[in-house]
Amino acid sequence: MDLFKTVETLVKFKTETGTASEIDKCLDYIASCFEGTDAVVQIERFKDASPVIFIRNNHDMLQDALVLGHIDVVKADDKMFNPYIEDGKMFGRGTLDMKSFAAVAIHSMLYVLKNKLPVNFGIILSTDEEKGSKSTHAFMERFPAVNAKVVLDNDVGGDITKIINKCKNPVFVKLIAEGKQAHGSTPWEGIDANELLMRSLANLRQIFPYYDLKSGEPQNTWIDTMHVALLNGGEVSNIIAGHAEALLDVRLTETSTLEQLEMKLQSACVDGVTYKIVSSSTPVVMSETNPLILEYKKLAEKIMGVSVEFQQIGGATDARLFAEKGATVIMHSGTGEGMHGDGEYVVMKSVEDLAKIQIEYLKSLAHE
Asked: What are the tens digits of pLDDT across the range 277-323?
């Protein structure tokens, strides 16, 4: 199997989240990669979620190792679905997020099958990760017994010299302000919902400082953060707003709880403003002394000839669904930049290295 031919083929499928026809074509292509092998390939479909493909070299629900990823991508111009190579980099939508690493997983599975490696190995690829991973949740509800000793999560970072060992808990909060409409020329006859909302947001800014390119990066980035994702209030220019809303994106470290956040929200909201927790998750925290991770790190350093460090990120990961079940999650991906942008690319050497690391790690699990 030509690894980069597989990457190129995957990228050419315009699998923007929700594009069912292209997603189906891509899933059919992935399934075809295992024709004539002993792989067990399931494409699971759901009434209220997009499909998931589950590939494994066994019939068990419990795997020694499992790659978790996705094949959907964010929207892009058509030209970005025609990948090209320049200066050792492959450019195109999904090269970094994360079709290159889906190709690595396919490559690893074919190696395991061909060499009859005595390891239970599986791959789960969802098709709506960019919009909330409803398909992954539907899959886990249908197959609650699916688990793994080690989950290889390649949908993180963007630097092959870093292993992510901490991800924050993303919590989305809606603030709702209720005022009283009045004519704009007589504001004393109304209560401005926009004003109530702004006062509450100002109170929250005393708890969660504001950061941007001008203020710069804090010395310690492993902190709770908040940004205002959406603001909506008012109907026309000459009427005092009677209703206003804001959607907040809060990222909590493992030392902060939802209950603590709610206490902060209660103290920040002025009269007339309430809040609602729209969604929350759990942080993924892996010990730097975990022997399964240290073995992986050792192999990665040997193959690449460089030191690999641990890093923490503010983003979330679907691998939390397995971390909650006790699996060791190894968050490690290839190098690249421009994720979700017009210049998205992956460094091809990092994809090759990741493929080598993954196979060597599977061999080490087989020989335990």
From this structure: 999 988 999 999 999 999 999 999 999 999 999 999 988 889 999 99
Is residue 23 helix, strand or coil?
Answer: helix
DSSP letter string over 216-272? ---S---S-EEEEEEEEE-SSTTB--SEEEEEEEEEE-TT--HHHHHHHHHHHPPTT
The C-alpha atoms of residue 144 and residue 324 are separated, in whole angstroms, by 12
Amino acid (one-letter) located at 174: K
Cβ pair 157, 315 in contact under 8 A: no
Tokens of 134: 């409803």
CA 87-9-47 angle, to 5 degrees, is: 130
Instruction: Name the helix (H) or strand (E) containing 205.
Output: helix 193-205
Separation between Cα atoms, residue 225 and residue 244, nearest integer Å: 23
Q: How many angstroms separate the CA atoms of 124 and 65, rounded?
A: 11
Residues forming a β-bridge with 295: none
Side-chain half-sphere exposure of 204, counting CA atoms within 13 A: 27
- Supply the pLDDT for residue 368: 64
Separation between Cα atoms, residue 11 and residue 90, nearest integer Å: 10
Give the residue from 249, 43, 279 showing the smallest Cα distance to 139.
43
Q: All domains of the chain, ordered by start, with CATH?
A: 3-167+284-366 (3.40.630.10), 169-279 (3.30.70.360)
